[in-house]
Specification:
The protein is an all-alpha fold. It has 6 helices and 2 strands. A two-stranded antiparallel sheet has the order 1-2. Helix 2 packs antiparallel against helix 4, helix 2 crosses helix 6 and helix 5 packs antiparallel against helix 6.
Length: 197
């Protein structure tokens, strides 16, 4: 039986605990995004964007609540870090991709977030390391280029920096969190087997 499967007779519904999770993830994400601004390449692109861990892990564990926080907290973090709101809003699709891909992938393929089997690691690498961050980097750099925030000659530098700056924290911080805390999280009613509960 997968961690995503409902037990016989199990009924899950969202509640106050999920709203608290959303607020908590937003606060932690905004703080992490602000800290990441100290290692900026420019325009909010960091060489070590710790906040992506909140996007990946939060969306896997807490479904839509994690995805919503992942889209909202970068705006808060950017405002604190002095990034113009126009830049933050243009990056919404990138932030959505970085959180929605892992959340969807883990639920669809019933990947164990505790990464217990080789297949779990393969799925994790595809959805949390490569696909989400590659699409996020592409969408982010493209948005900044389209709005004139970066010039075309540094487009690939920004895209590469975004990708690398996301991959490293996911591997270094996200992996131990998933391995170590998933058994605790899945036993709590805040864990979302579905999108809302």
């Amino acid at each position: 039986m997968s961690v995503w499967d409902l037990k016989e007779g199990e009924v899950r519904s969202w509640g106050v605990v999920h709203v608290v999770v959303f607020v908590f993830l937003t606060a932690i994400g905004a703080l992490s995004a602000t800290l990441g601004s100290f290692l900026q390449v420019g325009y909010g692109v960091s060489w070590f964007y710790l906040a992506v861990v909140v996007q990946v892990v939060g969306s896997i564990w807490f479904g839509l609540w994690g995805v919503l926080a992942s889209v909202f907290f970068p705006i808060v973090g950017d405002l604190i870090g002095g990034i113009p709101i126009s830049v933050s809003l243009s990056l919404l699709p990138a932030n959505l991709a970085q959180s929605l891909i892992p959340a969807t992938y883990f639920r669809f393929f019933k990947v164990n977030p505790a990464l217990k089997k080789l297949s779990d690691w393969v799925h994790f690498t595809l959805s949390c390391v490569i696909l989400n961050n590659l699409l996020g980097a592409y969408l982010g750099a493209s948005a900044m280029s389209a709005w004139g925030f970066i010039s075309g000659d540094i487009y690939f530098v920004v895209m590469f920096s975004w990708f690398v700056g996301n991959v490293i924290p996911v591997l270094v911080v996200g992996t131990p969190l998933l391995k170590g805390l998933t058994p605790v999280i899945i036993s709590h009613r805040a864990f979302c087997k579905r999108w809302l509960a």
